[in-house]
Structure formats: C-alpha cells, structure tokens
Amino acid sequence: MGTTHLTLTLLCVILFTCTHAKIGYFWHITDFHYDPLYTSQGDTRRQCRKADERGSSGHHRALGQFGDYSCDGSLALIESAARYMRTRHPENVEFVLWTGDILSSRFPGNEDDKYQAISNMTDLLRGTFTSHFVFPVLGHSDPSPSEQLTNLWMKWLPLEALQTFQNGGYYTIEQTQSKLRIVALNTNLFGARESQNVNTDKQWQWLDEVLQKATSNKEMVYIVGHAAPGSDSRVAYDAYSADANARYLNMIRKYARIIAGQFFGHLHADTFRVFYDHDRPVSWALLAPSVSPHRDPAGSSNPGLRLYKFDINTGKVLDYTQYYLDLAASNRAAIPEWQPEYNLTQYYSLHDVSAYSLHNLAEKLRFGIPLEAAMFHKYLRAYNVKRDAPDSCDGACANQHFCAITCLEHLAYRQCVEAAASALAAAGNSSPLIAPPISVTIALSPIIAKLVKFV
Ligand SMILES: [Zn+2]
User: Fold this and answer.
1) Can you list the domains of the chain with their CATH numbers?
2) pLDDT in tens, 57-83
3) Which of 71, 241, 283, 370 lies 20 to 30 Å from 83 when distance is taken between CA atoms?
4) For the whole model, what pTM was predicted?
5) How far is the CA of 103 from the centre of ligand 1 (A)?
C-alpha cells in the first residue's frame, strides 16, 4: 500500500515537472541613442544642442526634462528606464538583450568620448542588473568591435564569446540551466559597405557551424541582432545587402526548426516579421521599439522597454509585456511615468507566439479587409508606442506595413508594394484607411489576395 502511494506520488511529481513550464523573463532593450549633450535648454534646430552665446538663434521652445520627440535619448530618460526595470520581476529575470545603437549618431565626440559614453551606459546597466548577464550587440551607430569594448563587456561574456566578439562583434552563449542557445550577430557585417570585410564571410561560416551544432545537440536558439532582414520603405536603405539578405533568409529556412525566436531593434518601432518557406510560415522576428523617442530621419515614438516571458527549459516565447513612457505627459508632470502598454497575446488575441499565429495576425493587417481596420489601427498605435502619429496612414502606407511584415525578400517586397499601389491607383483610393468605401474594398480584395503569393 505504502509503496503504491509512494510510486503514485513520484509519478505525480515527475508528470508535474514535465508538463509545467518553468517560467522566466528576459528584457529586450534597444536603441538608447544616448546623447550626452542633450539639455532641456537645447534647440531642436541645432540638433538639441544649446545655442552658444555668440550664435544664439533667437526664440525657440523649451525641451523636456526627460527628452523631446525630435531628440535622441537623454541621460535622465535612460536612467529612469533603468530604475523602472529594476522594479519589475527582479527575481525571475534570466538575462537582458541589449541590441545596439547605444550612442546618438549626432554625438560629435572622438573615439575616446564615445568609449566613455558607452562605458557610462554599461555602468548604468551593471548597476541595474547586478546579478544578471547583459548580452550586447552592436548597431550601426556604435564603434566597431575592439579590445577596449571587449574589456568593457568582459564581465558579461564568457571567454569563448569574448574571442569572437573582439574579432567580429558576434558570439554565442550556451545556457547552463537549459537547452537554449543565444546567437548574437553583428548585423553591421550584413550591410552593403561591409561585403568585402573579411569578418563578413567568417560570421556566415561561424553562424552555419553554430546552428549545425545546435541541431545535433538538440538545442533551441534565439537569434539576436541590431537590424532585421527585409525592407521598410520608411527608412532610406535596406540594412542588409541583397546578397546578405537572401543568405540570411536561406539560413533561417534551413534551421527554422531549432530557432525559437529572433530579436531585433533598429527601426525605432514596435513591429514584427514572418519568415516563410514557400507558403508556409516557419519563423518569426519581433522588433522592439527604441528607448530613444526620435526616429531617423523623421518621426518619433514614445520610449519603450520590453519584458519577455518564456519557458526556461525549451526557450519557447510565451508572451511579452511592452512598457512605455508617455514622454509628453512625463515632461509635464516632471516625473517619469513608465507603465505597461500591452501584452502581446492579449492585445492581438493570439493563441500563442508562433510563426502561424503571427502570420494570421499579418493577414488581418492587410489593407482591404474592412472588418479588420480596427486591428490595423491597434497595430499602428503599438508601432508608434502609443504616440498618436501626426500624419494618418493611408491605404498605400498600410500596405507598406503589410508588405514589410510578410515579404522579407527585397524583390518580393517591392513587388508587393507596387502591386498594391497600382491597385489603389486603379481604384482611385488614396484616402486614409479609417473607412475605406466597401465597394473599393471588395474590388481590391482579389488583387491584394494575390500579394500573399509573393512570399
Ligand atoms: Zn537606432
């Protein structure tokens, strides 16, 4: 009798531990664009700098204590973000992803000044996450990998990672507690300017080897980088060269089964990408909004921070909470009021965080589906981190979003945008999305439906 009892209890314990996910959290923070020269006495016409006495340029509006939508990240803003992060789930946070563009691209300092500014940001994060590892990657406004940078981040990275980081800015981290591997990429090497860099080829080779090895070790992988592949016509250039873009997409298709998530920043916007193998959604990338309120070359959003919830054993991403700072309200109140903005699965009514679910969500964002216009507005609101966009998003604009999310091949993206533009022109519709006339919508639907074939 006693033995049966014991066996049953043991069985229950085993079943319980097998079926119940061990929940953990990790932060994704990106694009601080820290500007050490930001001052509330600055002038937006002078890159948020204080006018010098001689060249004083007359009347201008005062800037906020925590920053301005036209300016890069102020120290007060970034410090407030760090303070807020320290108060959320401190006991369950496993690690922090920090995806680059640490410094303002407007910062005029020399290499030493830049290093000092990055060092200050590193100290701030070290003080915030005293017992956690922060995994940094480089953005296009950051210095190239160097011994100095490697020394700065030595406490966060193991020896093997430090070696590849110092040479090429990329590394991989094996988690001791789980079968989850983090692969941190230097996406600067995917840009057209770096195609001749010897480290570009090395990184490709290394990436293939790491993913191959992860496959045989039955590990799951997070890919982390600054810029995502694909296109976005609201930025002037593609972050990856055509060759690198195609190569990256092939890599994802090849290893889709072990890739549990891809995490990027760079666009200063809250959006996502779906990767297809023929017509089948096989992987996803989530793009976190910036801490900096400014979006280059023009535009803005509220500062954002993102906390992911995941299964520690499998790496499966379960959800995230997006936090934000209403910058205008915080400046008025003279208090930085960080608060939750939304939860991914609740906000979009997602069944789970998977390529299929995000594909279905993307389908709802396609222009031409009148019932889903509300969903598109929700998406747009999140995209701008709850900052009301000053200009409305018309049909062509809405379609660019859909194409950017679903067509990651450069050519497919252009075809997707052009097909929709000519469909809109034929229908004579360039009005804002808010209420497309039903007749136009119905006329558009078959044409738009074809777009999905491009993926
Ligand atoms: Zn940036």
Assistant:
1) 20-50+60-364 (3.60.21.10), 365-455 (no CATH)
2) 555 678 999 999 999 999 999 999 999
3) 71
4) 0.89
5) 9
